User: Fold this.
Amino acid sequence: MEPTLETQTRPYDLQALEETKSFFQKVYGWMFLGLIVSGSTAYYAANDPAIYKYILLNKLIFYSLLGLQLLMVSGLIVFIKKLSSTAAGFLFFLYCFTTGLTFSIIFLVFTIQSIGRIFFISAGMFGVMSAYGYFTKTDLTSIGQVLVMGLFGLVIASLANFFMKSSRMDYILSWAGVVIFTGLTAYDTQKTRNANIIGNAGTEEDTKESITGALTLYLDFVNLFLKLLRLFGKRRR
Assistant:
């Protein structure tokens, strides 16, 4: 029996499926560890009097940390191809640690019960949308581009509202953020899947691609969580 095109390509298809599955296990693994680092750091910092006094109550240090976060995430995204996988992994966890320090303030504003509840709601929404982005055959590029433009608009409007301090605008922006980051979760998952190079498994490049994917999805999840927390979190009295 002559081999058909289908039987010839089937081994490659199976290899692609297995490598993509293995790749995403690493992506979600990096992301999960990053969330553990951020969460444990935030909880510890919120309950440490010294950190509370010298970091959270010191506006200069607090905003410097926010600036450092921005520099690290920008540097990691732009220069990751020039870094070793070890350096990229270190910077990823350093970013997650710094994020945990700045986000520790949520434990001082919201009850731990509502934080836990919103976290699991966010995880459920993230899981559904990430699964959709992974399995769907629909090309999400067009909607993804719209969402990215919406994200830029959200950032600009949020900066403006930082000075305006409008509670109504904050409410609108929070809902807009929920919509944007929910959609971006699906889009970024598909983009990460498509970026995976078949035959590259176990290489330095493969590890760095998994870190890039983990960072992108980490940002989607964290921002979705924060927007939901602003909308539905129960504040401390």
